[in-house]
Design brief:
Strand content: under 5%
Mean pLDDT: 90
Structural class: mainly alpha
Length: about 250
């Protein structure tokens, strides 16, 4: 529907509403991905630290006398400090490592859903922005409005890639037997686990970088949204074309 086919004021009210609330919504997406990126980088550092530890010659094992003893050949102090990952002699996969696996899977699925939603929303916004061509006073704002959509569309694509990277990182960890016995068996054989952990961490690192880029793109919109919103709000204060000014009250 074109602006000519509906009351101009109603159309402008709709445009102002979108500009106001979507600007506020984007303030979240200009910050939250950076916070998520920091958390992901911490997980990646934990995995890198374990991989480095398992790549070095292992000390002779001393039989454990009780199940809560730390596995001296598997633990890395950096991994313990960053994410609390502690291998115990009488237990299985460290719960903190299992939590990282779950978070990667969950975050990957959520980010994929965000990317799909944003892509769909930007297609709708792109189509709707064509209507703005009918509003002469907004002619100089068309570039700003389309830049906002382009930034969000690009951020949507980055979110989709992030989701794929995190899901694949979770896939790799799911295929590894990360119990003390499983890690020791691998290190005594092909020793693939250090390489797999480094690769997993690299996927996570890249996902973190892309999340930060996504936040930067959305943050670039804030000034554009403000200028666009203020212009539309100013238009709503003008009398309709052809309207007769109200007579001034007599003294």
């Amino acid at each position: 529907m074109t602006a000519a086919a509906e009351p101009l004021s109603l159309f402008l009210h709709t445009v102002e509403n979108l500009a106001e609330f979507h600007r506020e919504h984007e303030k979240f997406y200009a910050a939250a991905p950076r916070e998520q990126a920091i958390e992901l980088q911490r997980h990646a550092r934990t995995l890198h630290a374990l991989a480095d530890r398992w790549s070095r010659p292992m000390p002779p094992r001393v039989p454990a006398s009780e199940p809560y003893e730390g596995a001296e050949d598997l633990n890395d102090r950096t991994a313990v400090q960053l994410d609390g990952v502690l291998f115990l002699e009488g237990w299985g996969v460290p719960p903190e490592l299992s939590r990282i696996q779950r978070e990667l899977r969950t975050r990957g699925q959520e980010t994929l859903a965000t990317g799909e939603w944003m892509s769909s929303a930007m297609q709708t916004s792109w189509d709707a922005a064509l209507t703005l061509l009918d509003i002469a006073p907004l002619a100089d704002q068309l570039g700003e409005r389309h830049r906002i959509i382009a930034n969000d569309w690009q951020a949507a694509g980055l979110n989709t890639v992030v989701g794929r990277l995190l899901e694949r990182a979770a896939d790799i960890l799911d295929r590894m037997d990360l119990t003390p016995a499983g890690v020791r068996a691998d290190l005594a054989g092909d020793a693939r686990f250090p390489h797999l952990l480094h690769s997993t961490a690299e996927l996570i690192d890249r996902a973190a970088d892309l999340l930060s880029e996504s936040a930067g793109l959305v943050h670039d919109n804030d000034r554009r949204w403000r200028i666009f919103h203020d212009r539309v709000a100013a238009l709503l204060t003008l009398p309709p074309v052809g309207a007769v000014p109200a007579p001034e009250a007599s003294a």
